[in-house]
Amino acid sequence: MDIAQNAALVVVDVQKGFEEVDFWGTRNNPAADDNIAALIDVWQSTGRPVVFVRHDSVKPGSPLRTGYEGNGFKEYVERRRGKGSGAELLVTKSVNSAFLGTPDLGAWLREAGIPQVVLAGIQTNMCVETTARMGGNLGYEVVVAFDATYTFDLEGPFGWRRSADELARASAVSLHGGGFADVVTTEEVLTAAK
Prior knowledge:
By secondary structure, the chain is an alpha/beta fold.
């Protein structure tokens, strides 16, 4: 796998509100935060661009709503912001895709001549997956660092419940098998990026 020298790391919704387990329920992949931090560190140390995406929920009871403490980035992300030698962008959004936020991520990537994006963050099957699908549809080379993402158990129609692991795996299969993204491990990304 090749990681371009100007590949953008897109860190999706790594916010304090996702720590509220009473709201979200059971999560998977406890190593995700360490993997996200490692990716940010390598991107910043190699001068590559980093995009921090924040979900500004418009739902009144959401732990990610604007003005609530949970809207802020997790501490390990916040203390890394502004520390790299490469370009940095903050994108805010109220929908699932980082490509539908402010400022326009796609326009920023095009203007900078960036054809490849590496995705990490929360939730695997929600905002990470939606951003990956849109990125693939828009013609970007999308890489998802699978173990640098996590999600939560979820109930759908007909009383169907799926565990966080089942949802994450289904997301990975859809993205990779469907040609939207290359789904790989954090270690593979870090090795290729150093």
